[in-house]
Specification:
The radius of gyration is 25 Å and the shape is globular. The protein starts with 17 loop residues before the first helix and ends with a helix. The model has no long low-confidence stretch (mean pLDDT 95). Helix 10 packs across helix 14. It is an alpha+beta fold. The chain contains 17 helices and ten strands. The structure holds nicotinamide-adenine-dinucleotide (NAD). The site of nicotinamide-adenine-dinucleotide has 23 residues, from helix 7 and helix 8.
Length: 425
C-alpha cells in the first residue's frame, strides 16, 4: 500500500447527503472520474430510501437477478428469483428441477415459525435452582413477551414457551433462558430481541442473577424448512450416475473439508433467493452452518439415497429464518416485486421454496462433480465473463467465449488474443 496522509476520521460524515458523502469518498480515495460517475449512477433503489436503510450510504451495487424455471413445489409450478454474481447457479437449479419435474417435483414442509431469543444470566449462587425459578414463572414471562408485540399476537404469533439451560463455560456456570416465539411472517430478530431486553430485568429480580446478553439465536432449529424430491434414474443418465452421486454424498457427509464445499453449493441457491427477496443472508447462512454441525461434526445439510424402485431420492432440512415483513423485505421495492414473482404470500411458503431451490442446487452440483466435473458447465458461462473482462462487446462475447471453451483455455490473456484476432479479420 502506498504511504498516504489521508484521514479516515471524517467528522459529521453521517450527516452529509449521499452525494456529498460520495464526493468525500472520491476525494479520499483519489477516484478517477469514471469510477466517481459509476458510483453516482442511479440503480433501481432510490438513493433517499437507501440512505434511510443503512448508515453512511454512498451508492448501491447492482447484482444480476435471474429466475430459475421448471420448479414444481407441492404440486404448484413456481419461478424462483435469484440474485447472484456467480455464473452457472441459476442454470443448475433450472436443469435439476427439469429432471424431476415429470416425477412430481419437490415436496416441502416446515417445522414451525418459531425463533429463539437467549438471555444470559451470570453470578448465580445456585444455577440449578435458578433454572427452575425461571420455568415456574412461565405465565408471567408469556405476558411480558406478548405485551411487547400486540400486533404479532393479533396475527396468531407471540410467546410459545420458555426453556432454561445451565451452561458450564470456561468462565464458570451460567443460566441461559430461551424464549420461544412464533414470529409468523416476520424473520423476527427485532421482535424477539425486544422481548429478551424487556424480560431481562425481571429475570434479575426473580433470580438475583446479572443479565448480560439478550439476543436471538441464529440457530433457528424450530424453524426448519424441508424439501424432498425423487429423480427417476432414467432422467438422470442411469444407475451409474445415481451411484456416483450417492458416493459423492457419502464423501460430503463423512468429511468436513468436502461438506463445507457441498453446503456452499447448497447456499449458492439458498442465499440467492434470500438476497433477492430482501432477507438477511448472514442470518440464514449462520443458521445453516450451525445446524450442519449440530451432531458435533460438520456434515451435509442434505441426504441422498436410492429408493426401493432404484431412483435417486434427495432431502434437505435446514433453518430458514426468512420473512415477508420487516427488514429490507418490505422496504426494498425490488425485493417486494421479486417476492411477487415467487408468488409467496407467507414466510413459510418462501422458506419452503428456498429449501427446494437449495436441494435442486445440490443435485446439480453433485451430478456435475460426479460425472463431467464442475468445470465443463461452469467454464462455458465463465468464459463469457472472461471475454467481457478482455474487452469483448456485443456479438464478440459469444464468439470469444466459444473459442476459449473449444481451446480449453479460459483465461483473460487467451481471450485478449482471440479478440485481437477476431478484430483483425
Ligand atoms: P421488524 O421488527 O421490522 O418487523 C416485525 C414486526 O412486524 C413484528 O414484530 C410485528 O409487530 C409486525 N408485523 C406486521 N405484520 C406481521 C406479520 N404478518 N407477521 C409477523 N409480524 C408482523 O422485523 P423483524 O422480522 O423482527 O427483524 C428482521 C430484521 O432484523 C432483519 O432486517 C435482520 O437483518 C435484523 N436483525 C438480525 C439479527 C440477527 O439475525 N442476528 C439481529 C438483529 C437484527
Amino acid at each position: 500500500m502506498t504511504k498516504t496522509t489521508r484521514v479516515s476520521r471524517i467528522s459529521g460524515f453521517h450527516k452529509l447527503t449521499p452525494a456529498e458523502r460520495l464526493e468525500a469518498v472520491a476525494a479520499f480515495a483519489g477516484l478517477e472520474d469514471s469510477h466517481r460517475q459509476q458510483l453516482a449512477a442511479p440503480g433501481n433503489l432510490d438513493a433517499d430510501l437507501a440512505d434511510h436503510m443503512i448508515e453512511n450510504m454512498v451508492t448501491t451495487i447492482a447484482i444480476p437477478v435471474g429466475v430459475a424455471a421448471n420448479l414444481k413445489i407441492d404440486g404448484v409450478d413456481v419461478l424462483a428469483p435469484m440474485a447472484t454474481e456467480e455464473s452457472s447457479v441459476i442454470a443448475a437449479v433450472s436443469n435439476s428441477a427439469r429432471q424431476c419435474y415429470e416425477a412430481g417435483g419437490f415436496t416441502t414442509s416446515m417445522s414451525g415459525m418459531e425463533m429463539i431469543a437467549q438471555i444470559q444470566l451470570l453470578d448465580l449462587p445456585d444455577p440449578e435452582r435458578t433454572r427452575l425459578t425461571i420455568l415456574e414463572r412461565r405465565e408471567e414471562i408469556a405476558e411480558i413477551c406478548n405485551d411487547c408485540d400486540p400486533m404479532l399476537v393479533r396475527l396468531g404469533g407471540g410467546f410459545r414457551s420458555v426453556e432454561a439451560r445451565v451452561l458450564d463455560t470456561d468462565g464458570g456456570r451460567m443460566v441461559v433462558t430461551h424464549l420461544i416465539v412464533d414470529t409468523r411472517d416476520a424473520m423476527g430478530a427485532n421482535a424477539v430481541n425486544t422481548m429478551a431486553e424487556r424480560l431481562a430485568p425481571r429475570l434479575a429480580e426473580w433470580t438475583g442473577g446479572r443479565p448480560l446478553l439478550r439476543i436471538l439465536s441464529n440457530l433457528a432449529d424450530r424453524r426448519l424448512a424441508r424439501a424432498r424430491a425423487v429423480w427417476p434414474v432414467d432422467a438422470i443418465g442411469g444407475a451409474g450416475v445415481r451411484d456416483a452421486m450417492i458416493a459423492a454424498f457419502h464423501f460430503a457427509d463423512a468429511d468436513p473439508y468436502r461438506a463445507a464445499t457441498h453446503n456452499k453449493g447448497i447456499m449458492n441457491g439458498v442465499s440467492a433467493v434470500v438476497l433477492a427477496t430482501g432477507n438477511d443472508t448472514r442470518a440464514v447462512e449462520a443458521g445453516a452452518h450451525a445446524y450442519a454441525a449440530r451432531d458435533g461434526r460438520y456434515r451435509s445439510l442434505s441426504r441422498w439415497e436410492v429408493t426401493a424402485e432404484g431412483h435417486l431420492s434427495g432431502m434437505i432440512e435446514m433453518p430458514m429464518a426468512v420473512g415477508l415483513v420487516g427488514g429490507a423485505t418490505k422496504l426494498h421495492p425490488t425485493a417486494r416485486a421479486l417476492i411477487a414473482v415467487a408468488g409467496c404470500d407467507t414466510a413459510e411458503g418462501l422458506a419452503r421454496l428456498i429449501a427446494a431451490v437449495g436441494l435442486a442446487q445440490n443435485f446439480g452440483a453433485m451430478k456435475a462433480l460426479a460425472t463431467d466435473g464442475i468445470q465443463k458447465g461452469h467454464m462455458a458461462l465463465h468464459a463469457s465473463n472472461v471475454a467481457i473482462d478482455a474487452g469483448a462487446v456485443g456479438d464478440e462475447i459469444a464468439m470469444v467465449a466459444a473459442r476459449l471453451v473449444e481451446a480449453r483455455s479460459v483465461n483473460v490473456n487467451e481471450a485478449r488474443s482471440v479478440l485481437a484476432e477476431l478484430r483483425s479479420r
